[in-house]
Protein 1
Amino acid sequence: MRIKNYLSSTNLAKNTAATLSSIEAGDTDKIIILKNNTPKAILISIDAYEAMEEEIEDLRLTALALSRMQNFDPSESISHEEMMKKYAK
């Protein structure tokens, strides 16, 4: 990941188009928005946001699968054939 870029909220307001172009072009991965020298928000591209959302969902599903595997009791399961008999139309 590239070096973090910081931008004051005042400069963001003055240079919104250029800032968005920089993010869109990939010149920077993220811009941390400061207000009174305190980080308040992070600006990232839509592609980076969607990738992050997908990764979070993958991690959530992995955690769910691992939890189910730890608690799996074969005596409480039914075969695929039994499922098809019961639910197939």
Note: The first strand starts at residue 5 and ends at 8.
Protein 2
Amino acid sequence: MAIWIIVTLLLTPWLWSLPIPKDLFRVNFQEDVQESRQNVIWKRGKVAPSDLTVYFVNWPREVVNQRLSAVLENLDIGNYFFAGHPRERVGVEERQKFFFFQFLLLIIGFTSPHLNKYKKFLVFYSGLALLAVFIFKWRSFEQTLPLAPPFIVLMALGGRQIITWQKKWRILFISLAFLEVLAFGFFYFKGILR
């Protein structure tokens, strides 16, 4: 199984251009609380609450909602598999993280008979990754990296499953995957996809 994971990692465009995040573990709760208070004040007609009413303003819910929105952004499958996601329209930079054939591998990986062996890891790791996303508010291109290992494991299971297919279907899938990697590599190294 380790060879399948390594092959999947090597075929992932995400890792070809992955910059190292500079502020991965930055947590500033005072800044988050202040920002949330300002949002609540702005929503309520720009009337600043006094020290006594600050406990009745719903800024704690605002802090949690901001962090939950980061978690939901990380759970959006479009952020991983589909470049040109609609978020680009509002100025969020999107890059292709996985190929389309890897999306098919992910779906096939869910049907793998070997999935039971990795279920505990996938559930435990995904839970920890989502908790880290909630705490650190990871939402940019570089910071969706913690949720990649479950995808990689499922895609490796899908690749392992494809090897058991009939020869003609296996050759068809591999040739289409190769053409997609070749086209992406050509456009990436030409500078079109940067």
Note: The first helix runs from residue 2 to 10.
Protein 3
Amino acid sequence: MGFTKSVTITFFSNTFLFFLSIISTTILARLLGPEGKGVYDVASNLLTFATLFLGFGLASSNIYFLGKNREHLEEIIGNNILLTCLGIIPLIPFYFLNAHYQFQFLRSVTNIQILIVLLTVPFINYKSAMINVMLGLQNVVEYNRLNIIDKVLNVILLVIFIFTLVSPSSALLATLVGTILLIIWIDYILLIRVKKLPRLNFSLMRKMLGYGFKAQLGNIVQKLNYRLDIFIVSYFLPIGQVGIYGIAVVMAETLWGISGSIATIVFPIISSAQDKKEMHIFTNQVTRISFTLIVCCSLILVLLNRSLITPFIELWFGSGFTTAAVALVLLLPGVSIFSISNILANYLAGVGLVVKNIYSSIVSAIITVAFDIILIPRFGINGAAIASSLSYIAFTLATLIFYIKYTHCRWQDVLLLKRTDLVLIKTALSQRFKKT
């Protein structure tokens, strides 16, 4: 499948996934209110970090090693199963430590809710790893289909569970059940329909862990950049503020749909590409185009904030969430700039320079923690938004520097739209309209 078609499919898939996410967020906001949604956001944040720490980078490893050699499919499946099971072990002491000491940043989350989260962790890790097997095989259609089924299942089960019992616990249970159901379907595809039997390959496992550790360390530190503030807001502010800030974050991150779709496809292509020079010229072009689109979208959102965004938030999510509009505007500069790092970081990962992403993430994480601690007590969720924007910008600048040094291209080639790009866009659009 061609790159443009793959990106188009992935973009529309991501757009639909975003639409489903908005539905989920709306249900949670409307039924739980700022406080209940805040509890759910903190619990979900715990789930995110637990899966990152205990995922061993298998999702990235699957893409990378299948891009190198698809004949390792059965060994990769077997290795994923074993490592996912081993990831359960550290969850047990964490649960009992929190039950005994009640960590301050989790003070609003009950022990039952934490138990549900920890039970979900290994299932989420296995699901993510197996979905990325499809991407490693460059089966973009199946990859997007599974992601859509996953989100549709979650929405359906969320409606069933939360209308049965209106509480954050029921929403968390919906995630657990939906994940298990999707795993059953993925295993049916790989183990029965494709007839692949899991096998262990400890030599390959060591390589997967080596690559995955570097990739995951970068992911963990990067996730700190735009998710740690949830815990810090929870630590310093009332739990309802977490729910309001979560609305701003969800809306701001929609801009990553364009660059995220491109980055998703770029990684496996670069991992298997032979001509690296041609690939960095190609990467420059898609980065320029996506960056221009995202900056334009951000400017439109800023201009329409008072006349459209604030009324939209009040109408859609409820009057208790209107203060999210200011935080959204403060997030936009960082989110816009950070969007290109999705593509550039995936390029660096695709050529084996994962460690560069780790360096960028460390710089960004330091800025996140420092400014969150300084700004959140003084400015609340607006301070968190400013800190996140500064963090995103720092990560992007560092990634851009590493990318330029590796490819020997100019920063203008990466960021500034060229006449040839406009010609390409015009040609692509005219061909698309002719087909329709």
Note: The chain has a mean pLDDT of 82.
